[in-house]
Backbone:
């Protein structure tokens, strides 16, 4: 690393660390909650619910606060420290010896801070990659984002191996170490300043302007169309590993299966990202919803390994196509200056309420029905498809929304 390292390269490396840590938070924190702390599926789902709704409040406030800072990286710097402290304290509580009810309450509080904060960072990262990465002599967005997904694959395999070798406690250790790298990385990013006029506006005005974006019909449909499709991944994200492990599949094999889906996502972004530009972003979002409905319907039947592999390949559509279409629409609609706030609004209202409620429902479905709980996710995906069809006919947000 040199002092003169390009801003886009630094942001890409920061993105890589983020997605490596996301593998631990998303896939293995629920395993730690169950195997190390004895939480039920309902209790795990409640933690995810509270963290999800926390994003609805914290996201707009964080965006409005960050808009008032001349330093574009003020948000990641502050949030990174909060996340590191929250996950570090999870380990302290986990070994404190307090009774189960008290421990669940403390884990819920710390999970609210840690998981909420971790998800808030993705809005800053996506906006930064879109802003700094371009085809003219720099990394393309899809390639930079694909490297993040590749880091997710590598981390999920590594943490899965660690789980088999050292037990469930190692999952939280990896999360804390990667969060430490993320917290330090925010201070290493190339300094960037933003519009001083926006920074001078009162907090209440900045908050109102951000929330005003959501009132644009097209943005509203995107939030909930793509949001329901992504929320339908809740059962898979929170309990997919547990379904496989409890059916007799080893932690390493389950991690490899999960990684197949992300590997297809990486291939889509690295190899097909440019090719996919020939399709309107709304078509990508729609295709993702259809693929999600098919995927969850078939996974509910607990097929064998020979079927799990091709089903995992549908992740390239159910997640990657939906995500890429969404990011391109936000950038197209709001441009460089307003994209970070639009990203935060999307992450707060698309990823938060639907995913939070879906995670809570997934806990009940997992406890009561096991793998058949995936059928509940089919319903969410079909709602996403219906809203995405309306999105294709909606006009783009006007200048007032931007």
Residues:
């Amino acid at each position: 690393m040199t002092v003169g390292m390009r801003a886009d390269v630094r942001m890409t490396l920061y993105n890589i660390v983020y997605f490596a840590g996301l593998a631990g938070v998303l896939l293995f924190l629920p395993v730690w909650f169950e195997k190390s702390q004895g939480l039920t599926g309902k209790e795990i789902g409640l933690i995810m619910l509270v963290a999800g709704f926390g994003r609805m409040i914290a996201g707009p406030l964080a965006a409005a606060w960050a808009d008032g800072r001349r330093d574009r990286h003020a948000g990641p710097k502050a949030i990174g420290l909060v996340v590191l402290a929250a996950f570090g304290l999870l380990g302290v509580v986990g070994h404190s010896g307090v009774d189960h009810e008290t421990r669940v309450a403390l884990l819920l509080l710390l999970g609210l801070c840690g998981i909420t904060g971790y998800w808030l960072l993705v809005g800053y990262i996506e906006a930064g990659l879109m802003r700094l990465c371009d085809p003219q002599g720099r990394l393309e967005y899809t390639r930079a984002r694909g490297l993040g997904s590749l880091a997710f694959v590598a981390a999920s395999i590594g943490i899965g191996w660690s789980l088999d070798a050292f037990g469930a406690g190692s999952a939280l250790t990896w999360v804390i170490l990667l969060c430490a790298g993320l917290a330090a990385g925010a201070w290493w990013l190339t300094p960037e300043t933003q519009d001083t006029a926006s920074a001078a506006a009162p907090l209440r005005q900045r908050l109102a302007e951000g929330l005003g974006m959501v009132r644009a019909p097209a943005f509203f449909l995107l939030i909930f169309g793509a949001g329901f499709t992504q929320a339908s991944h809740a059962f898979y994200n929170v309990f997919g590993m547990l379904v496989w492990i409890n059916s007799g599949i080893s932690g390493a094999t389950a991690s490899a299966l999960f990684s197949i889906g992300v590997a297809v996502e990486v291939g889509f972004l690295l190899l097909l990202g440019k090719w996919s530009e020939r399709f309107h972003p709304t078509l990508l979002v729609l295709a993702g919803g259809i693929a999600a409905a098919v995927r969850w319907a078939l996974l509910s039947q607990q097929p064998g390994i020979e079927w799990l592999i091709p089903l995992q390949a549908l992740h390239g559509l159910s997640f990657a196509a939906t995500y890429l279409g969404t990011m391109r629409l936000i950038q197209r609609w709001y441009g460089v200056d307003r994209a970070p706030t639009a990203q935060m609004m999307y992450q707060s209202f698309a990823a938060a309420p639907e995913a939070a409620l879906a995670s809570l429902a997934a806990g009940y479905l997992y406890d009561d029905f096991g793998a058949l709980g995936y059928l509940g996710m089919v319903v969410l995906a079909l709602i996403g498809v219906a809203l995405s069809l309306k999105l294709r006919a909606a006009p783009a947000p006007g200048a007032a929304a931007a």
User: Anything to note?
Assistant: The two ends are 37 Å apart (CA to CA). The mean pLDDT is 82. The chain has 16 helices and no strands. The longest helix spans residues 315-349.
